[in-house]
Amino acid sequence: MISDQIFNHFIMEYKLPELAYSHDALEPFIDKETMVLHHTKHHQAYTDNFNKVIEKYPNLQEMQLEDIFRNLNTLDIADEDKGPLKNHGGGYINHKMFWEIMGPEKEVDDTLVKDISDEFGSVESFKAEFTKAAMGQFGSGWAWLARGKDGKLKVYSLPNQDSPLTLGDSPVLCLDVWEHAYYLKYQNRRAEFIENWWHVLKLV
Ligand code: MN
After folding, report:
1. How many structural domains is the chain composed of?
2. If you measure from the C-alpha of residue 36 to the centroid of ligand 1, how many angstroms do you get, rounded to a whole number?
3. pTM for the whole thing?
4. pLDDT band at 160 (very low <50, low <70, confident <90, very high)
């Protein structure tokens, strides 16, 4: 008897990344309640909805995660799936990086700090420029430090869950300025959230 099972193939599925620290580890700068909701509800929803697109396309299942976003505009997928892939897939990969660059203890990347100082004059100048980008993003989006193909660092903001990868850049640091990232603790005080966030950015 030939079982149907032999025709099944492994369906690649993305998992909600685990944090390297507890949900209350970034207190008092990012509160536990925000972290729990942001990670287990918002990021989980992006993960689930990203998987709903991925499961339809074996060609996407075979790609490296970053390559999906590098090639986002030329992927062979149905028009109706392009928006969901960009938004939910972007939410998946952007939050994955966001959790990784934060932590309760500083783990300063000296090479990055030197590159930042060389490019922006000083870490303080970089912080000012990054803060301006994060404050200037109207509505939902992220502030980014990204490296261009020429190796140079640059700061900008992007709306929604757009990724620097799709612009041909390599993301280095990111800050979520969607209201869900700060509203429970900071309400409309985005500037105060950004100012406090530097304490939990472990790399700089
Ligand atoms: Mn978010």
Report:
1. 2
2. 11
3. 0.94
4. very high
